[in-house]
Write a structure and sequence with these properties.
The chain has 491 residues and is mainly beta. The protein is built from four helices and 33 strands. Strands 2, 28, 29, 30, 31 and 32 form a six-stranded antiparallel beta sheet that branches. Strands 14, 15, 16, 17, 18 and 19 form a six-stranded antiparallel beta sheet that branches. Belongs to the carotenoid oxygenase family.
Length: 491
């Protein structure tokens, strides 16, 4: 190919930018609350080269790590590519060498055996280290001060899984990090690796478990007593991949499966539950237990997979706007026999949720997630699934209360991070990037600071960006005191 494809993955908000940048003292409109001091790290997919295949997905785009450094009301910004093995190989060749999404059989022969991950999904902070992650490979460590790539991370040789989730869970009390890898044994394998790293960043446990089928496990949850592994029927088939076909194809007639085990237990004690056929879930709002045998899992479910290329690979042709969905609570009673569980709607459809870090895995009163404003007009084309969100919701699952911040016409909002306030009665702050269309394929981006308990009031501060930005996938907030103690500052 001689140019980027004219598809939703590479046009409008998803138009490639491909610029490494560093800017100090960005202008601030309004006032940034004084307790917001630290770094907002973002994972931004941005292809460094024109892809080899016309129907490529933005999920294959090279990962960039971006950072808003906020200190005493001042804001600096920087963004750099993650120098993965894949990125370096293509930079040397000055062209794309890797083929279809998660299909090594379509690559240029010169990169056979080269690590294919692009580290473009989630920045993860744990034990003084910053990692860039994507679930098809291991993480890459990045210097949080310079954004330079340090290298692939395998816990000093201790990690055996070939993959690591982009959705880890850090216990707010113990500081332990719980994570997993699916396809842990290699392409299309059914092995799940369940891992625990202690508060100092040492890998202290890695257990392997064989899943019912090779399917998507994008997110998981850990409560105070249990670890929960949801498996959804977007499946991989090795023969299809060897023939040059897609890695994923959604199976609408296959049931989802949820495995639950004690979080410090043996994987042999895993108990499986069967859920609705064809349902798709990418992100979990929260999970908690009642101290006994009941487990509650709050998530965003849709009737089928929201990624067009994943469902169309199986012949499912539906517009995203026509796919039913809801925010739901799945309740499991481990004291009862059987594979069934209860499902109840608790909120409108949406995704990219956020709760205060201190409430992860605990009973909680409120949270936030992105959705569509039913009166906001057609959404912009952009983001990983091709349709950008244009509203922020605050939800109280127990009371049913729902608040909304709707964005102006032809605007989009990215996933926020949450920053606690000094006042324990204050719900804290949400910080996120928004985009607004201002002309034909012309967009303006801003950093917004929002009062988490009063989102309908809109932002209390805005930081206009000097150039347009690519949509992010996920982000992570690191307080200034933790940033100053980073390993990279001492190594």
């Amino acid at each position: 190919m001689t140019g980027f494809p004219n598809t939703p993955d590479f046009t409008e908000l998803n138009t490639p930018v491909r610029i490494e940048l560093e800017v100090q003292n960005l202008p601030v409109e309004g006032e940034i609350p004084p307790e917001i001091n630290g770094a907002f790290f973002r994972a931004v997919p941005d292809p460094a080269h024109v892809p080899m295949v016309e129907n490529d997905t933005g999920l294959s785009a090279d990962g960039m790590v971006s950072r808003f450094l906020i200190e005493d009301g001042h804001v600096d910004y920087a963004i750099k590519y993650v120098k993965t093995a894949r990125y370096l190989a293509e930079q040397k060749a000055r062209k794309a060498l890797f083929g279809r999404y998660r299909n090594p059989f379509t690559d240029n022969p010169s990169v056979e055996g080269v690590d294919r991950t692009v580290s473009n999904t989630t920045p993860v902070w744990h034990a003084g280290r910053l990692f860039m992650t994507k679930e098809d490979g291991r993480a890459y460590e990045v210097n949080p001060h310079t954004l330079e790539t340090i290298g692939s991370w395998d816990y000093h040789g201790a990690l055996k899984s070939q993959t690591m989730t982009a959705h880890v869970r850090v216990d707010p009390d113990t500081g332990e990090m719980f994570f997993f890898g699916y396809e842990a044994g290699g392409l299309c394998s059914k092995e799940l690796a369940y891992c625990i790293a202690d508060k100092d960043g040492n890998l202290v446990s890695e257990q392997w478990y064989e899943l019912p089928y090779c399917g998507m496990m994008h997110d998981f949850a850990v409560t105070e007593k249990y670890a929960i592994f949801p498996l959804f029927p977007t499946t991989a088939d090795l023969e299809r991949i060897k023939a040059g076909g897609p890695h994923w194809a959604h199976d609408q007639d296959l049931e989802c499966w949820i495995g639950i085990m004690p979080r410090y237990g043996d994987v042999k004690s895993m108990r499986g539950f069967k859920g609705p056929k064809g349902v798709s879930v990418f992100h979990i709002l929260n999970a908690f237990d009642d101290g006994g045998d009941r487990v509650f899992l709050d998530l965003h479910a849709t009737e089928t997979n929201m990624f067009p290329f994943m469902r169309e690979a199986a012949g499912i042709h539906r517009d995203n706007s026509e796919i039913p969905g809801a925010t739901q609570r799945w309740t499991f009673d481990l004291s009862k026999d059987g594979e069934d569980f209860e499902i109840a709607d608790i909120g409108p459809p949406g995704d990219l949720p956020r709760i205060p870090d201190a409430l992860h895995g605990r009973p909680y009163t409120h949270g936030w997630y992105l959705s569509m404003n039913p009166e906001g007009g057609p959404p912009l084309t952009g983001g990983p699934v091709g349709t950008a969100f244009n509203a922020l919701l605050r939800i109280e699952p127990e009371t049913g209360r729902l608040d909304m911040m709707s964005l102006p016409f032809e605007s989009a909002i990215n996933e926020p991070v949450h920053i606690p306030a000094d006042d324990p009665e204050h719900e804290g702050w949400l910080v996120c990037v928004t985009d607004r269309k201002v002309g034909d394929n012309d967009y303006k981006s801003e950093l917004w600071v929002i009062d988490g308990g009063n989102i309908s009031a809109g932002p209390v501060a805005k930081v206009p960006m000097p150039c347009r930005m690519r949509p992010q996938v996920h982000g992570w907030w690191v307080p200034m005191d933790a940033l100053e103690k980073a390993h990279a500052a001492k190594d």
